[in-house]
Amino acid sequence: MTGALNRINIEGRNGRQLREKWHGGARSYLGPQPLQDFQTFFTVTGPGSPSVLTNMLPSIEQHVEWIDRCISDLRKSGKTEIEAEVVAEDNWVDHVNETAELSAPLGVLILNSKGPMSLANQGFSCRTLEDSPVM
Asked: What Å distances lie between residue 65 and 29, 69, 75, CA to CA?
């Protein structure tokens, strides 16, 4: 989920690179919300959003509409930047991981060339389940 974004030279406040921030795993707040040190950097269907478990077109539409409303509200209030606080990111990542863990007992699996994978790992980043039957 982070590969494409990590290949771009995305630079935040004080020259911090996005790939540096995500070195220990992707972080976000509410999916599209800007990250700490990456003010006004919005992602559509990014890490921590439910997009991989939904019909992508409505998810993209919802994210774009949310971003549009957020930018409109910023302009109306005379502000030019928005970013999440670290505690908000931490709470969102915890929520995403807790929610994803619920998929394992339900057998929510996707298949790739290496076999079945659970959605229950670090913001839907997937881990291979060696003993899971192929369905």
From this structure: 16, 6, 15
Residue-wise pLDDT for 15-56, tens only, equals: 988 888 888 777 777 777 777 888 878 888 877 777 666 778
CB atoms within 10 A of CB 111: 10
DSSP E strand stretches across 1-135: 109-112, 115-118, 127-128
Residue in 77, 78, 132, 135 with CA at minimum distance from that of residue 105: 132
CB neighbours of residue 40 within 10 Å: 14
Q: Check if the beta carbon of residue 89 is closer than 8 Å to that of residue 28.
A: yes
Distance CA 74, CA 62 (A): 18
pTM, 2 dp: 0.65
CA 72, 77, 83, 84 torsion-angle sign: negative
